[in-house]
Amino acid sequence: MAKARPNVLFLMSDQHRADIAGYAGDSVVRTPVLDELARTGVTFRNAYTPAPICVPARQSMASGQLPRTCGCELFGDDLAPGHMTFARRLSQYGYATVACGKLHHNGPDQMGGWTRRIGDGMAVRHEYIEGRNLEAFRDLPLATEHKWSQAKEVKRAGIGGGPINDADDYTLSGALRFIDGFFANPYYDRATPTRPLMLMVSFARPHVPFLTTRDKFTYYLNRVTPYIDQTISDHPFLSSRHVKQGADVSEREIRRATAAHYGMVEGIDEDCGRVLTALEHVGQDLDDWIIIYTSDHGEMLGEHTLWEKSKFYEGSVKAPLIIRLPGRAQAGRIVENNVNLCDLFATICELTNVPATDGLDSRSLVPLLTGNYATWNNETVSHYGGTNLGHEAHFDRYENLMIKRDQLKYQYYGRDMPEVLFDLARNPKETRNFMDDPGYADAVAAFRRRRDELGYGPNADADYQNAGY
Predict the structure, then answer these.
(1) Could you give the number of structural domains in the chain?
(2) Which of 143, 154, 284, 389 could form a disulfide with 257 if both were Cys (CB 3.0 to 4.6 A apart)?
(3) What is the CATH number for 177?
(4) At what angle do helices 251-281 and 163-183 cross, to 10 degrees?
């Protein structure tokens, strides 16, 4: 019988392309831990991020609300202090909520509803400093986080450590120490395992820079199949920031970057295994736990000559998602329905018997976990951009929206760019735009109506509140 208040382990990575896993059909990458979670859990093959950019994706997932609903539409944005998150909600119902590693909060509420935070990465961006002197900040050479250009990221990939790997070492060490203290506490014998726990262990890999160990790099170097000789889209946004083979990077450099990325994915798999082993070491039966694995978005990895994220191509906008629910969901179940990381809020609430809050863009995945597909609304939404935020922004504002229903994926990029419609059943490589195909006229009309309801386009609903699920 399932526990009324089960423990929850939330394992998360950053920028993990959904198809680079053994359970997803990749025969090269070594991911035995994730493969076992998939074998004994439920895999969602069409899980999508609410935004293919780190910060809005993470804050939307945490709040169970799409970026426009929660007010986090670009990299520099953050949830308002005290905004409801699934961590805050479980905390209100007696859970110890502990986050190790990356949450990517930029504002003053660095806890984000968690009762304890462990690890690196807590920092408030200067635009959130209350009462700051604008003249003083205008004259200061502010230290900011930055990355290399995408071409240089490819060129510099290979063997090594770096800030991402260092942060993950910190995260793993903190998680292991917490598990030992919470469940065993060998020094004072005051462990508190009777209190339900939600533990998030959130890694920064396989995010750029792509650096891995010598052993992993040399293993993958001559085994991976890199994306080479790719065609550049003629769409002005889908072709932006492309890294051209031959002009910007060489074929060999693309191979090296791909191998390093694969090595980082394997490293994440190993670290997830260490967390699971630590729980078993202190006497926990993992069959009593809800275990979730996901990432904030994917990685283009050179496909369509693109790297990193921000596009609505499958490589960028899809995320891996596994939920292990022994005794309540059939082991090995594969769900093909379109779902969203926002759906995890309502799902976690239902699985832990905690009442969900109102105003969510979140639908419980429990029916899909248990094989009830009939009533599922097979839509998923991803977007970012907008102008509704009250602090200075350092990024251009966009109006980028994706709506996917069944195998059709509609995209809107503002009034000055063409709309896009992909049919993944007919063209899984996403190289053909079906917008002008008369056979899709009814579907396009329906997508445009939904676009308006979501607050986008020339006829946008000025009173948009949420997705209306």
Answers:
(1) 1
(2) 154
(3) 3.40.720.10
(4) 10
